[in-house]
Each structure stands twice: as C-alpha cells, then as structure tokens.
Design goal:
By secondary structure, the chain is an all-alpha fold. The protein is 67% helix and 0% strand. It has one domain.
Length: 246
C-alpha cells in the first residue's frame, strides 16, 4: 500500500495511517463488525475481566506479606489501574475503531511499532489466559477432592512444577479448548455465558462479604503493616498482576 493510500506522513518501517484512513476502512465491505453487544454486556465483560481467579486467591497470599495493609494495597493498585483505564479511554475516543493499542500505535508511531505492539498483546493475552487457566484448575481439583475424587499428578501438574512435577496439566488445557470453542460460536453466545458467570461471581463475593462482616476482629489489625513499604510494594505487585492478567 502506498503512502497516499495509507494517509500517513512516513515511509518504510514507520509508515502510518491517518485516523481518517483507519475510519474509512471500517466502512468497507467485509471490515465492518456486527453490532451484537449492548451496554450491559460491555459492563459485565469489564467486571468479568476484573473479578477473576486472582481476586479469590491472591488476597490470602498478599496478606502474608502486607498483613492487614492488604486492603489499602488493593486501593493503591486500583488507583494505578484507573490511570491505565483513563489512558485506554482516551485511546478509544481518539481512534474509535477495533484494534486496541495496535491501531493506536499504527496511527501515531508507525507500522513497525504497531507490529511490536501486536505481538506484545498476543504475549500478554497468552500469559494472562494461562495464569487464569491454571488458577481455575486449582479450583477444579479442590472440588473433585471434596467429592472424594483425586486426579493423578501426572495430568494435573506440568514438568516444571517444583513440588510435584507431572507430565501435563490437563484441566487448564481443557478449559482453554472449551472457551475457544465457545468464542468460535459467536460473540452473542459467549457474552451470554460471560454474563451468567459474572452474576454467579458477584453473588459469591456479596455472600462472602455478608458472612465475613460478622467475623471481623479489629484486634488482628495490629501491626497494620508489618513490613511497611516493602509489604505495600509486594502486595501492590500481586494486585496489579491480578487486575492486569487480562
């Protein structure tokens, strides 16, 4: 594609597309996405991205480092995450088309930067999905164990597991394949399933808060931050990983 067709100011690796050219492409036949999500669907997708495996597991791990300061650590991580959310809001309002950071990079910094960002996004999504899948596998194994069923370590741990090495962690692979199939069935169906899952997770969190509220003991809040700054820093790292696993 020539420079004129791209509508950019640079050539070669740094060739870019103007916002007008990018918007014009979305109107071409075969490039326009069908409108299948409503406002409530988008809200539930956002909530589903935030309330995942980490929110149920990492608070206990972080409490071992930050103590009672785990609560403000979550707050600090939330503030940092809100800045990222504002950045993406500005991004989408500036270039209101699909493509996320890839499209924005193409329009502002050129083709080579967009190419790097595209592969970076694939790596990010791969790491996030694998983390969530392994966390889900832990819940799955716990449920089976509570029912008296125990899967062999050979198919529930990877070869690099430092404690109990196995051959292949099969449950995470299974859930990834199931979700891949679900996504291939269409946006509407996958969104409906996501809405149901998010509703269940919200009910679980509300139930936990209601039950736990009657067992709060302020005497356990001392010392509030056992290792002070290091505790906050360690906890915030875990919180941010929990929020960005997405």
């Amino acid at each position: 594609m020539s420079q004129g067709q791209k509508g950019g100011k640079h050539k070669g690796f740094f060739a870019s597309k103007s916002v007008d050219a990018i918007l014009a492409e979305t109107q071409e036949e075969g490039h326009r996405l069908a409108h299948s999500l409503g406002g409530l669907d988008l809200i539930f997708i956002g909530i589903g991205a935030l309330i995942g495996t980490g929110i149920f597991v990492l608070p206990g791990i972080g409490a071992l480092r930050a103590g009672p300061a785990v609560a403000p650590s979550f707050l600090l991580a939330g503030i940092v995450s809100s800045f990222a959310a504002l950045t993406y809001s500005e991004l989408t309002s500036t270039v209101p088309v699909s493509g996320s950071a890839y499209t924005y990079s193409y329009a502002t910094m050129g083709e080579i930067v967009a190419w790097i960002i595209g592969w970076d996004l694939l790596l990010e999504y791969g790491v996030a999905c694998s983390t969530v899948a392994v966390g889900w596998s832990g819940y799955f194994d716990s449920i089976l164990a509570a029912m008296g069923l125990h899967l062999p370590t050979l198919i529930t741990a990877g070869p690099l597991d430092p404690q109990h090495p196995g051959l292949l962690n099969l449950p995470p692979l299974g859930i990834v394949l199931v979700l891949t199939w679900l996504l291939s069935r269409g946006t509407r169906l996958s969104s409906n399933v996501n809405n149901i899952i998010v509703a269940v997770k919200l009910d679980v969190i509300v139930l936990f808060i209601v039950v736990a509220a009657f067992h709060v003991k302020p005497v356990n809040w001392h010392p509030f931050a056992p290792v002070w700054l290091f505790g906050y820093r360690s906890r915030c790292k875990l919180d941010l990983f929990c929020l960005y696993r997405l």
